[in-house]
Design goal:
Blueprint: H1 6-11, H2 13-29, H3 36-50, E1 53-54, E2 73-76, E3 79-81, E4 95-104, E5 107-116, H4 122-141, H5 148-161, E6 165-166, E7 172-174, E8 181-185, E9 202-205, E10 208-210, E11 216-218, E12 225-227, E13 233-235, E14 238-243, E15 246-249
Antiparallel strand pairs: 1-4, 2-4, 3-12, 4-5, 6-10, 7-8, 7-9, 9-14, 10-13, 11-12, 14-15
The protein binds 2-amino-4-trifluoromethylsulfanyl-butyric acid and cobalt (II) ion.
Cobalt (II) ion is lined by residues 110, 173, 204, 206, 237.
């Protein structure tokens, strides 16, 4: 795993701040009746205005059936991760997860949030709050000298206590010059196991939970990951940097 110097972590602050600002802006911009393409177009404008670069557009890992066509992942209701921007219309009560990463000044940051549009439901609100609480627990466990399993267990415990479905196939990851670096940050695990977390480690921590079971399915597009039982899902993510003086949430939003 690549470790960053204190100076490099300082250099990552602008992209972290920008990613947080874009997510805040998208959340305010989103309206019932818009399409997910409308959200993607708004993000493209903000990226262009800032002189940033999308790391999603054209991204083509082994699991994608085609190069990624957007600058956001927008996963609605039972879609959990990697939802492609499309002409899908956002309805009242939709559970909308937006995942955004980009490059600015040579560094990448990655973050995600979930919100419900219009009329809220207690089930969705509890799912979203629990996913955010799991992210907070993961961040609290991500300290110099701790182990990766401490982070994974902290996340998984919160999700299980809420009674939610968890699948550890997709999780967090190192972030730096590129979006996906080592190590993997699983959303389930055991305290005291895994690698020791060192000063200079920068990772995206990203719990995603399902209101039903642990299974998921992938759409024919090769990208969109949905709960197998079509229960609603939520996703929360921050990019954090581990320093001897504590863990910095680079993508913090105010
Ligand atoms: N930020 C996403 C993650 O870490 C990655 C999205 S890849 C894309 O899960 F190509 F879909 F954009
Ligand atoms: Co990520």
């Amino acid at each position: 795993m690549s470790l960053k110097t204190p100076a490099q972590i300082e250099q990552m602050r602008p992209v972290g701040r920008f990613v947080g600002e874009v997510l805040t802006s998208l959340r305010e911009f989103a309206r019932i009746g818009m399409t997910t393409n409308d959200l993607d177009a708004h993000a493209r404008e903000l990226i262009a205005r800032a002189g940033a670069r999308s790391v999603y557009l054209g991204y083509h890992p082994s699991f994608g059936a085609m190069p990624y066509p957007g600058v956001l992942c927008i996963s609605v209701d039972d879609a959990a991760l990697h939802g492609l921007p499309s002409d899908e219309v956002l309805k009242d009560g939709a559970v909308v997860s937006i995942d955004f990463a980009c490059e600015l000044q040579g560094w990448v940051a990655d973050s995600a949030l979930t919100f419900q549009l219009g009329t809220t439901t207690p089930e969705a609100q509890r799912l979203i709050a629990t996913t955010e609480a799991a992210l907070d627990a993961g961040i609290a466990a991500a300290r110099v000298g701790a182990r990766m399993g401490d982070v994974s267990e902290a996340i998984g415990k919160v999700g299980r206590a809420g009674g939610f479905g968890i699948n550890a196939d997709f999780g967090g990851h190192g972030v730096g010059r590129t979006m996906h670096e080592d190590p993997h940050v699983a959303n389930l695990g055991r305290r005291g196991t895994g690698q020791k977390l060192k000063e200079g480690l920068v990772i995206a921590i990203e719990p995603w939970f399902m209101a039903g079971g642990d299974g998921y399915v992938i759409d024919p597009d090769g990208w969109t990951i949905r709960s197998a039982d079509h229960s609603i899902t939520a996703h929360a993510e921050h990019t954090v940097a581990l320093t001897p003086n504590g863990t910095i949430v680079l993508t913090a939003r105010d």
